[in-house]
Amino acid sequence: MSSAGGGSALRVHAVWFGPGQELLGSLQAFVQERRLRAPFVLTCVGSVTKATLRLANATASNTNEVIQLSGRHEIVSLVGTLNPEAHLHVCLSDAEGRTVGGHVLGDLEVFTTAEVVVGEAVDLRFTRETDERTGFPELVVGPRTPTDEPA
């Protein structure tokens, strides 16, 4: 378990992305521009025309459990952390209301809109380290340091 004790104050950011923008890369650019150190998705509504997702069967040694979606999908849920090695999961619904979800690998191309509210735990810093047990880079929560502050 990785925790930073007594919690943190919260800062909230809202951002809108339009047609054709790739959502994961756009969120990572937003985080980098604002020098957010412990960012996470609070909520998101919108739609996409493409998505590449890793499914739950994937392991560190077999990451081939991947699906590529195309067509119009509503974003039903988007959750996760947005540090440099972002860890996001998405749930999408198709025109018939069927849902599919997984770990976001990229290609989340916005169809009409993506309205995202990003939270930042201002007293913390998120990093990732490879965990021997899972083989994946897992979240490490630490205190924000003076060197994390914008210049």
Automatic annotation (TrEMBL):
PROSITE patterns membership: PPC
Highest taxon of source: Eukaryota
Pfam families in the record: PCC
Domain PPC: 7-142
Protein name: PPC domain-containing protein
Classification of source organism: Eukaryota, Metazoa, Chordata, Craniata, Vertebrata
